């Protein structure tokens, strides 16, 4: 057995398989392509791109990892890329993110979701607030953040950080996605493009 492969982070492979299981036509891209730069600063590392071949407003997913230390657990972010014409003016920047309210700090279950937004994100936040499937998506899977982009990539990024684990792991914990989750992600993409 290849020792390097044994300790390789398999988060991308796992998520790719879960997407195939819900009939999303997708494929693993070759490594080192330009799309890996989406939300990938120097202190993080892209685990690679999943290309979406199904009819979808989401065209690819970049999975980015922060390698933790002794007192800093590893973290994984999934960036769903939604290409669109967006303004390159700072004053038009859109940001909306979920704030999950728990019954108890850290260990409690999520009882509600509030959408924090900047001035340009008000309409989106209102749509998210009134949509049960989008609220359930954040409740069940983790924190969500939407941003408009215009530099290396023009469009919107839907950032998802799955529920975290306190234990250090090689691959991201708690990865789950079903058909309802995928449909809700595509609904977010649709709302972004319509806004």
Can you give a write-up of this model?
The protein has 195 residues and is α+β, with helices and mostly antiparallel strands. Helices cover 25% and strands 31% of the residues. The chain has an 8-stranded antiparallel β-sheet. The chain starts with a helix and ends with a helix.
Summarize the helices and strands and which ones pair or pack.
Blueprint: H1 3-6, H2 11-21, E1 26-28, E2 45-52, E3 60-66, E4 75-83, E5 95-102, E6 110-117, H3 122-129, H4 132-141, E7 142-150, E8 154-162, H5 179-194
Antiparallel strand pairs: 1-2, 2-3, 3-4, 4-8, 5-6, 5-7, 7-8
What is the total domain count? 1
Uncertain segments are none
Strand line-up of the largest beta sheet: 1-2-3-4-8-7-5-6
- Quaternary structure type: single chain
| Overall 3D shape | globular
Helix content range of the residues, please? 25-40%
Order of helices and strands: HHEEEEEEHHEEH
The overall pLDDT average reads 89
N→C terminal distance: 51 Å
Count of extended strands: 8
Structural class by sheet pairing and helices: alpha+beta
State Rg. 17 Å
Strand count, sense and barrel status of the largest sheet are: 8 strands, antiparallel
Count up the helices: 5
Fraction of residues in β-strands: 25-35%
List keywords for this structure.
alpha+beta; 8-stranded antiparallel sheet; 195 residues
At a glance:
This protein is of the alpha+beta class and 195 residues long. The protein has one domain (3-194). It contains five helices and eight strands, in the order ααββββββααββα.
